[in-house]
Design a protein that fits this description.
heterodimer; A: alpha+beta; Peroxisomal Thiolase, Chain A, domain 1; OB fold (Dihydrolipoamide Acetyltransferase, E2P); 2 domains; nine-stranded mixed beta sheet; five-stranded antiparallel beta sheet; 12 helices; 23% helix; globular; B: alpha/beta; 16 helices
Chain lengths: 485, 402
Amino acid sequence: MTETGITGFSGYIPRRRLHRQAIAEAHSWAIPGLKALGKGERSFCGHDEDVITMAVAAARASLAGVTAGKIDSLLLASTTLPFADRQNSTFVGEALGLSEDLHTADVCGSQRAGTSALLQALRCSPGSSSLVIAAERRYSKPGSVQELTSGDGAAALLLGSGNILARLLGSHTVSRDLVDHFRSTGSNVDYTLEERWIRDEGYLKIIPDTLERLFAKTGVAPTDINHFVVPVVAARTVALIAKKCGIEAAAVADNLQGKCGDTGSAHALLMLINTLHSAVAGEKILLLGFGQGCDALLFEATNEITRAGDFRSVQAELDKGSAENSYMRFLSHNGAIDMDWGIRGERDTRTALSALYRNRDTITGFVGGRCTVCDTVQFPKTGICVNPDCNKPGTQVDESFRDKVGSIKSFTEDHLAHSVSPPFMYGAVRFEGKASLIMEFADFDPGQLKVGDPVSMCFRIKDQDSMRNFRRYFWKAMPAQSNAG
Amino acid sequence: MASGIKDKVAIIGMGCSRFGERWDCNAEDLMLEAYAECLEDAGIETPQVEAAWLGLCYDEQSMGKSAISLPQALRLANVPVTRVENLCATGSEALRGAAYAVAAGACDIALAMGVEKLKDTGFGGLPGRSMGTFDDLWLPAISAPGAFAQICPAYTEKYDISAAELKQAMAHVSWKSHENGALNPKAHLQNRVTKERILNAPMISSPLGMFDCCGVSDGAACAIVTTPEIARKLGKEHDLVSIKSMQLSLSNGAEMFYDSWDGSYALTAEIASQKAYREAGISDPGTELDLVEVHDCFSITELITMEDLALSERGGACQDIVEGKFDRDGALPCNIDGGLKCFGHPLGATGLRMVYEIYQQIHGRAGDRQLTDVRQGLTHNLGGFPNRNVCSITIVGRHDMH
């Protein structure tokens, strides 16, 4: 029987990092106790990022490290999907340029969604390859502990049967409806129960019960575990769990609280990916997902794990952070305050969905054209070549712009045009093949744009349609980055 | 090759409303204000107007989509009226329609009216609007200052001048227009501004500051045209003004999607002006034109337009500008009426307002800003963005120039 395992991976963490101290200070008038949590940084989505965009970013990085064959299935795990009814995973698949002959599913409903999706995919028929993505954009009430301990991020794992980097030795799931927190339909923030109860009745009972059965099933001893991946915020609690389960304290994996925070249903997979970067062949990695029970997945790194460096590392994502002290920006980007953007913010951004549908390769897939006569690359692909010296009709074939590196031809920082993250930065980007395109810039700070600088393409929210609660997406130009690292 | 329109159409009357924040009136009132002056100037009666063209760009915000508001406001005699809209060239397009109809012999006397009531939109600057269902899916919802600001880095890079030098020249453009506007009772802004204030103004879209951008205003302007023969019969022997050329050039996507254009000039302005010079029989525009009214939606636009119209050498506009070549007392006064900078830019009216200034200067009626011995002048509109636009050039002059 063909063995299925992890063949590629990558994480994505938005570059914006809010100093927790800035949050604690903003609330010091009301909740001075938050000061104790005011250390380090948490990641948060830029104004144009969400679960979809982070999922696409993580998945692209994971696919960039391998020569991916056909992907048979795509699972997207999250509890903060932008669409409750419009399959998010299908949309992500189109942005990635995957074939439409693709099994897709959104996996939701619990902080365990990430590990559950991974488990489902690993149980798929041998020989097939799948992409498991988990992403979370975490919303929290101002003044809550979660506001400080949460972070936004995404993780993508490519599964297949050839050259696997880590194999699944076994798994066990206990499903038990302990409600440590909940978020009802229609609400976007959690209602959280008492920490001591969650620790004593939740973590310290459900996890040991699960692991006892896993160890019995697999014949692996707790002391054999080299990497214990536990997506729990409090390091002291994780140490207690390890001790109770008989796992070495040194095996406990970094929970990324320092520069990122807890990324919800994506966190287990993000921590796993970080661990895979430091794992050596033969090491055993125990991954947990917690929420209304526990998923436990036991992996073993193979000799192929030396290829981990081919994939963009979580550490590189952690390091790229751009420090932010404006708590108000964080609140505004998360929709927690209703800013007055003036009359330009009132513009109707209704999307003609019939037009989006017929142009979805162009818009979602970022596919332009290449003239087969003069070789001119152009976006969009049209009926007549744009090169004035050619202008031949019907000569263009598909040309993907997704992975192109362009260079900044012109730019401006616009304080008049509407942006929920002013100034609105855009300009012309030139590409090899004489293509030129007006694009919005992403992840640049004011003053950073320079003519001639290289830019990579990223999939981002283009407009929010507040009238219809819809958002549309397109590709933007960000500072060029390499995938490895 | 076509014989062109030179001297086939005479302008026998023009009118221009006071431009500004006209909270006191509707678009219809603005048209009437301009029309009353125009009709008196032409010395004809309304029933003699056989056809009309209405230039109106932001229809939704003022008078609706059709042309009906014009005959209704002016009580035209159930004649054909067409509404035209072509971005910032809208006013010039109304004149082109009327002039071509007269030249074709389709009618004897035609009216071109341009109007825009921008201040009722509630916007400072032009209102944002849809770019069309497809472009809205991908094109950033950019602003006009943001689009034109991008000329600046392209220009400084191409000609190896510093951003500060360019900004100084741009400040001179705005300073000069305010100096001119201060002499014009119909201008929206009639104040002088120091270069220091211009240079230190808040940024709108870097490097364009507030004074690098034109104002936003309401206004109307109109012209009555006929053939030179009929004009003479109407008693218009003296100082008869005729159209020398009307050209239009539109982008076809090359500047926007094909990387051959370097972003430092307007391709369409170069093409339209060369065609216009040929049509008008002008070989040396720098000496044969006595004044120009160009589309200074932004100071940088006026700067590059001097080069696009071949009035400055490529890369030489900054020097020409700071040396005063285009000032009121310079070799070739530009925007002697104050330009868009001081008139604002009611899109439908702007092109006709520019022709109005040249017409007034030829007739010696320009008051404190009157130039001496004006024979002919050029108007220029650039609508849209530098990389996707419509450019119109109109040259008018004395009918008896030769």
